[in-house]
Amino acid sequence: MEKVISCFGRRPEALTRLICFPWAGGGSIHYARWGNVLNSSMEVFAVKLPGRESRAREPFFENMQQIVDEILAALLPLLKEKPFALFGHSFGAFTSFAVAEDLKKLHNLEPVHMFLSGASAPYSEIRIKAPKRSELPDDEFLQWLTSIGGTPQELLANPEVLQLFLPALKADLHVVENYRCSKPDVAFLGCPVTCFDGKQDIPHDLQVVFLTAWRNITSGDFTIRMFDGSHFYLKDAGNEKILLDYITKILETAEIDYL
């Protein structure tokens, strides 16, 4: 499991696990440190994909099913042990959705809550019609990357660092841009779903309606929460605190319901 998951402190006594999925090109550390912030009733697992961090020498995955298969192979026994929730931002929202879909259809397991951030539903019209950024020349790609914010300027200005960062980012975008799924005829989940987004997120044109397509995946409660900021609103310390306080409150309620 250590190959696929970063965890900054195992908590066998925890009542709930929060499984976090990285954004495109991202690693696991940002989420893994949440384990030091959230209370002891929660254990945080951060997914670590090939081509970065301790897996830097491994080839990137080429499609979504490869990601799902590896995650389920590593986590399925643990997901059967106790309640779990899923959190994914941007690319991570798509991977968490794909994992949840296979968990339900193949193993009849589902999270107690899904937290989906910074992404339109994978079957929504805006997502399907979006340009394929992974195919852009590097200079145009960097212009787009700068426009959505969240990437440190010192990284964008360092050619050597970019040589390490861009391949992972483009590889993940290639996966998500070629990922196709149909709008569910019937909601396959019954758990609550919360969508988060930045009010100034360029890809979503500030229109909450694009997030409502996620409503089709669940028969449970559906909530949208907007934050000040752009695509990487969650990197802001104030926003992150609000986000984690909200997740904590939701999961503590889920723990009471479960018990």
Overview of the molecule:
By secondary structure, the protein is of the alpha/beta class. Helix content is 37%, strand content 14%. The chain has eight helices and seven strands. The protein has helices spanning 29-32, 64-79, 91-107, 125-128, 138-148, 153-156, 159-177, 237-258, and strands at 5-6, 16-21, 42-47, 84-89, 113-117, 193-198, 222-227. A seven-stranded mixed β-sheet has the order 1-3-2-4-5-6-7, with helices on both faces. The mean pLDDT is 88.
Summarize the structure.
The protein is an alpha/beta fold. The protein has helices spanning 29-32, 64-79, 91-107, 125-128, 138-148, 153-156, 159-177, 237-258; strands at 5-6, 16-21, 42-47, 84-89, 113-117, 193-198, 222-227.
The whole-number mean of residue pLDDT values reads 88
Give the structural class: alpha/beta
Strand order of the largest sheet: 1-3-2-4-5-6-7
* Main pleated-sheet profile: 7 strands, mixed
How much strand?
Answer: 5-15%
Q: How helical, in percent, are the residues?
A: 25-40%
How many β-strand stretches?
Answer: 7
Shape: globular
Alpha-carbon distance between the two ends:
27 Å
Count every helix, treating DSSP H or I runs of 4 or more residues as helices: 8
Poorly predicted runs are none
Sketch the topology as an H/E string, one letter per element: EEHEHEHEHHHHEEH
Rg of Cα set: 17 Å
